[in-house]
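Methods — Computational structure assignment.
A single polypeptide chain was analysed. Its primary sequence is given first, followed by the predicted tertiary structure written as structure tokens.
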Amino acid sequence: AFSATTKRTGQESQTSLFALDLRTSTVRKLPLELTAPVNATFSPNGKILVVIESNQNKVWTYDWDQQGEVQLLTKLGGNGNPLAAKPLGICPSNQLGSVLVAIGHRQEVIELHLESGQTLRTIPFPGQQGVACSVFGTNLFVVFTEQ
């Protein structure tokens, strides 16, 4: 389980991500100081925490087992329009080594390779803003808002 807190420093806000161990009720602050994380998931093998930062159009990885440093996986391009690449939802895919990211204004979900950051495939969907996704069996579920 995760919890985030935000504090403002001047014009920017810093967000801290915490891991809550539900078995022991212990809390651990993760070394992720990001300005606008909106969602997080684990890789299909459970070893890498993947965090999306929507205001920066970035996807970050954190090696959960090694408790290493946060690494930038990719910065999503928006063809000059930052909203066009804004990641809002993330979920693990059925493919080992990749995650699915809902890109709101592009009306698509992309599958990202967790080592290279490359887009493996693009899945279009109807609606205006994909805000969450989930995979069950062979089905991809996308929550979207229609405007």
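Note: The chain has a mean pLDDT of 79.
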